[in-house]
């Protein structure tokens, strides 16, 4: 049996299932869409993940290496990609929208800490962020 979107949506509604629709981040007006369940909190204690500079990561980092970076997001490049900068250099980072702190806006002057995985390939080198924290 083949389902079309309207058939699938009607089936979900008939079952009493609510479909959450995300509000675009660029829109700040009222939102009447059903809200998704809130995300669980995150850990904010000590970490054994190595704090490293952009230069160290680019010079000696291994593919799939877990690391922490501290610096600033200096520009948005599109498609969840940003340019991250510390005192030693710049690197492209990929940050899923849900990894930003809820309810907080981050500008190019705000210091942040990124925890994630280094993706070192033949055609691209970037840092895939799993966690973003603001540094006061």
UniProtKB/TrEMBL annotation:
Signal peptide stretch: 1-22
Keyword Signal among record annotations: yes
Residue ranges of the TM segments: none
Keywords (A to Z) from UniProt: Signal
Any Pfam family: BOF
Superkingdom: Bacteria
InterPro entries noted in UniProt: BOBF_sf, CarO-like
UniProt keyword annotation of Phosphoprotein present: no
NCBIfam families from the UniProt entry: stress_OB_fold
Protein name as it appears in the record: NirD/YgiW/YdeI family stress tolerance protein
UniProt source species: Alcaligenes pakistanensis
């Amino acid at each position: 049996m083949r389902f079309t979107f309207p058939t699938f949506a009607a089936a979900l509604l008939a079952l009493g299932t609510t479909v959450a629709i995300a509000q675009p981040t660029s829109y700040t007006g009222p939102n009447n869409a059903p809200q998704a369940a809130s995300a669980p909190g995150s850990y904010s204690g000590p970490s054994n993940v190595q704090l490293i500079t952009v230069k160290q990561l680019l010079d000696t980092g291994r593919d799939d290496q877990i690391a922490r970076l501290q610096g600033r997001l200096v520009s948005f490049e599109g498609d969840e990609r940003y340019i991250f900068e510390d005192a030693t250099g710049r690197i492209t980072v990929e940050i899923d929208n849900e990894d930003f702190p809820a309810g907080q806006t981050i500008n190019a002057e705000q210091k942040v800490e990124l925890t994630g995985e280094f993706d070192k390939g033949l055609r691209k080198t970037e840092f895939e962020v799993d966690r973003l924290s603001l540094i006061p």
